[in-house]
Design goal:
Layout (H helix, E strand, L loop, with lengths): L2 E4 L2 E4 L10 H5 L2 E9 L2 E2 L2 H15 L7 H14 L5 E8 L16 E8 L5 H6 L1 E7 L14 H12 L4 E6 L2 E5 L3 E6 L2 E4 L10 H12 L4 E2 L13 E6 L3 E8 L2 E2 L7 H20 L1
Parallel strand pairs: 7-8, 7-14, 11-12
Antiparallel strand pairs: 1-2, 1-6, 3-4, 3-5, 5-6, 8-9, 10-11, 10-13, 13-14, 14-15
The protein binds N-(5'-phosphopyridoxyl)-D-alanine.
Length: about 280
Amino acid sequence: MTDVFLNGKFIAADEAKVSVLDRGFVFGDGVYEVIPVYDGHCFKLKSHLERLQNSLDESRIVNPYSEKHWETVLNKLINLHLGGDQVLYIQVTRGVAARDHVFPENTNPTVFVMSNLMQVVPVKYKKNGISAISLKDSRWQRCNIKSTSLLPNCLLKQQAKDAGAEEALLISDGYLTEGSTSNAYAVIDGVIYTAPKSGKILAGITREVVISLASKAGIRLIEEPVAEFKLTDVDELWTSSSTKEVLPITRLNGVKVGEGIPGPVWQKIDALYQHAKAEERNDG
Ligand code: PDD
């Protein structure tokens, strides 16, 4: 049985137990991170730990560990799984307490970390692109917190799956915010547009990488949201996330996006992204 990390101990997953009174279970009162690992090296670890700190601060949960301690725990777990390509999942909840919406005093956060084998992105997603549907963004206004309360995201993602699509693109007040499990981009006349950081989106770490790669490649990227009515007229649409990387959307609501094939700007960014991953493998 695979080992996981729970509250200071590395133990078999089926022996790891959390109280039913844990506020993560009762209220979804917790935050999380998902970190890709290439050949045993965490990709953009610093950025992920910074975002974890930010989610904890916004949720008023004290970070139980220093950055150094997080690194030690994560590396130990990676090595228990013999390195390779993995996906780390970190969850920190407010801890165990009698049920009360008001925060408990003197409760220790619950810390859980697991590592799973990374699922390879299906070749067809990159070759042909994925399909998406647009849906009303039904989430709250603090999406910058990477909260474990993901029922709205799960409902939206399932709605996409039921429609035969891989992702739901979310529309708030007439503008594209992000995907149900990813950030979103549109390319219009060679310029990349993505929604700016705010409570309407999760500031993705892959998004950060895309912004820096575009800048290095001299491709103009503007952090501005795209209006819903323009989505039928863009040249390219993409999603990005730590687990699925940068993916071209070639059908939106059953209609071709641009030429209906992965576009040239995506191809350039994807090539640069693969290069950044390869560098991580080599020098970690
Ligand atoms: N989710 N926006 C939302 C709503 C997300 O759920 C995710 C990723 C992202 C992209 O963030 P990043 O590039 O840091 O992975 C944006 C992860 C993978 C998940 O919930 O499993």
